[in-house]
Every structure is written in structure tokens, then in C-alpha cells.
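Problem: given the chain below (446 residues), write out its structure.
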Amino acid sequence: MIENYTKIYFIGIGGIGMSSIALYFLDKGKTVGGYDKTKTDLTINLENHGALIHYDLKISKIPLEFSNKQDTLIIYTPAISKDNIELDFFINNSYKLLKRSEALGLISKNKFCIAIAGTHGKTTTSTILSHLLYENNISFTSFIGGISENYNSNYIEKGQDIILVEADEFDRSFLKLKPNIACITSIDPDHLDIYNSIKDLQDSFNEFACNLEKNGLLFKNFDLGIDGISYGFNSNAEYSIANYKTINDSSFFDILYKNGKCKNIRFEMPGKHNASNALAAFAICKNLKINDADLKKSLGTFKGVKRRFSYVLKSPKILIDDYAHHPKEIQAIQDSVFSLYPEKIIMAIFQPHLFSRTRDFMDEFAKTLSMFHEIVLLDIYPAREEPIKGVNSKELLNRMNNNNKKLLKKVELVNHIINSNADVIVIMGAGDIANEVEKIKNAILI
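Solution.
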């Protein structure tokens, strides 16, 4: 059905998940266009590939190419407001509309589908797996929620035999998929603005696990109480990591599995959480009959994911940029950076993402952030949300048990960093904090 449309229009085309689907349809020779509120590197890349994009939310700005509802498909992100005027227009004019997840479900239908889910780790795992498949000449197309450093894209195509998708739990989107292989990296409380309770979230992941095609395989973190092929640092896991160590910012470890061992793997992304993600990708590839030597070589050439423990500078100060926006993710970053740099002064710069998430995890954020030597908080990035009374960065700051803490505006960051004694600066957040990274880098280099 989806192939019958010659024109595809996206509401929210600049999102990390939406833009990969837009690239897919451009690759198929479709006429592609859409709206987004801000021009970014992602939308510029789409425009360079021929997409017709506008940034002014007016019906009159919708290109005429999409005026015929018979051959135009509308794909929208659930992150947009329900009263979006373009969404209303297309509904009222009887266009065919699909959520992003529904589009992915149709793209992967009748294909061998691999779906990577989890509240944390799914983007890195999907990107590692994409690289392993690419390097080993497997026919696949992947839609990932981050930019691969190896391919500078969130859409990687080397054939159509396998469709690899990052399965997002937001809005229960991943329940639209029927994978042949699924992986669950983690299940921690999140999106409690969508889910009624932690149990509701867990039930949704259980339903995802039950959506496997007949004879499908489920890979799961050893710590999760779900039946499946287990992986992790625990020696009882079916795929486990042993002899983990870090040398010069790289990880080295062995992978053990039934009747086999892959020794002395070198992996550029530091942190045990990233080694675990690499292990998940390795386990899936073993079940696709890729041999150890080839997987070891491919893991050694993986360059990482943008904004996932990304080194921006290593001198004169160390500057690390990360998408972390949940207490568990911040804890993983904190563990990694303190392990790598035990003698250095470490500053965290954090922009909270969403009022609801800040409310739900206020104490957890405060506890985790307090472990850094110095903390800089920015105002909450609201994204799709309206303010919630009593939920703000000042309240979060007050709950932190640390005397070296500040609440700053973005324009104050550079001056503060220049005058700080911190040796390592870790920038974290899922909002527009990423736009400040280059300014901070340049200021440090002056």
C-alpha cells in the first residue's frame, strides 16, 4: 500500500526518527516534503537530497506538489501538538495519514525485521548493529535514532533483505512492529506522561516481546525479567563480557558464549554500558551466521554515534557531548567519566528535558548530578510540553547535595567554563543544548 503513493509529506520532518524515513522515500524516487519549525543540519541534508521543506506553519506554505490527496501520503510524528493546523488540514481534507511508527511497520512488513528497543541504549545498539551488518556485506536498510559517525547518517542502506529499526516505546510506537529478531536493552521508568505507571511501561515491553513473528528471537539484557537470549556482564548470561578494561579512552574485553570465545576486542566507545550495547549487536550477528573474526574487526572500526559520549575536544580541556536526559543515563556517563579520569576535576552541564520527566525524577536527577565535582544547570527544555507549576531547574538545583552548583542561562556558559578549574566538561541533554557545543569548543581553544 505504502509503495503506491508517489508523494510523501511529513509533519515534523526534521525529527531524528522522521528524517530517516524521509531519506528512505527520497531514495525510492518519491516526491518528499514537509514542515518543521526549525532549520537544522538534518533538514538541510534532506533539502540537499531534494526534499521540499518549509518552516512557516501556514497552510499556504504547503507545496502544491502535495495538493492531490489520491497520491499523497501524510506521515506525522506523535510529538507534534494535536491541534497542529497542518494535521487538522490533512484530516479535514481526507488525506491518508500514518504515524511514524505505522509507516515503519508497513516498510518492514513482509521483510526480515530486526527491532531494537529499550529506554536506554537502543540508538547506540542499533548503530553498532548497522555497522556490523554493513562491514560484513549483509543486505539491509536501517532507520536509527542517531547519527552514525561512520556513515554520517541516521539512514543506512545496503540492500533490502533486512529492515533494522529502532523501536521507540514513546506513545507505544513499537507495538506496530512484528520483528523476526527483537532486542530489549533496558526497561527503566520513563515517559510517565504517556504511561500510567511503571507496570504499564513494563507491560508494554512485554507486549512488544510477544509481537515476534513465529520462530522469532528475543535478545534481552540479563537483568530484565523477560524470557529471551540473555546478554550482559553477568557470567550466567548466554553472551557475556569478561576481562573488561579501558586503555587510552578505548574499551577492551572478551565475549564469552556457549562453545565459544572472542578475545581481546577493541571498542572505541568507553563505558560498560556501551560495551553491553556492542555485546547485544554481536549476539544478534552471531545468529545471522557472521563469524567471530569478522565481528571483532568490525567492532574495532566502529567510530560511535553523535552525541553519545562524543569527544569534542581532548585538549586543552576534555569536552564530551552526550544526549543523556534520564537519571540512569547520567549515572552511566558519570561512572564512565570518573573511571576514565579519576584524577581530574569533572564538570557536568545539564539541560533537563521535559517538565514531566523533571517532575517524575527530580530526586533521582539531584542525586546523580550531585556526584560531579561541579554542576551547571540550564532551564528546562520544554519540547512539546507546557510548564508545570513548581517544576523548574531552580527547584532541582536546591535538591542537589553539592556546594559547587549553579543555574545559568545559555549565554553565560562560555564565560563560566573559561573561568572554571574543571579539566573535563560533560554536556548532557536532549534539547537545544547541542547548539552550544561548538561555541564552547571554540571558546576553550582561544
